[in-house]
Every structure is written in C-alpha cells, then in structure tokens.
Design brief:
The chain is mainly beta and about 70 residues long. It is built from two helices and six strands, in the order E-E-E-H-H-E-E-E. The mean pLDDT is about 85. The protein binds zinc ion (ZN) (2 copies). One zinc ion binds near residues 5, 29, 52 and 67.
Length: about 70
C-alpha cells in the first residue's frame, strides 16, 4: 500500500487560519525551502508525514504544519 501527502497531491489547498484572520496558503513542502537537513525539518516526520510551509497573504507570517500521509 502506498502513501501520499494530501497537500502535495492537491487534496488540501487551504491552510490554517492566521491569527490576523486570513486563511493561510500552502507554500509547498518545507523541505523545498529549508532543505531536508535543516533544523526546521524533523527527519522523524519524513516517513509518516510531510511538513508544509503555510504563509499568510495578508500579513506575511508563516508557519510550518505537519501533514499526515494518507494511504491510497
Ligand atoms: Zn506534502
Ligand atoms: Zn496573517
């Protein structure tokens, strides 16, 4: 059985609400920004989930969100 990240696959397009009230946007896997060996990226997550960088279009703040993989 294979697993996939629902956010990478486009099944999740909206992020969490920013404290400012706007909805944050998925900027893609955090590894694309920080690299797989950065302190932002926990290797323990890599096998079971995908860490995405969400940014707020209104205030520019961003947060990392762990997306659990789904079985397909
Ligand atoms: Zn992903
Ligand atoms: Zn915001």
């Amino acid at each position: 059985m294979a697993t996939m990240c629902p956010a990478c696959s486009g099944l999740i397009t909206t992020g969490p609400d920013c404290p400012c009230g706007e909805e944050m946007e998925d900027g893609g896997p955090a590894a694309d920004y920080f690299g797989p060996y950065s302190p932002y990226f926990n290797a323990a997550f890599e096998s079971t989930g995908c860490v995405h960088l969400f940014t707020c279009p209104a205030c520019g703040s961003h947060s990392l969100l762990y997306i659990p993989l789904r079985e397909v």
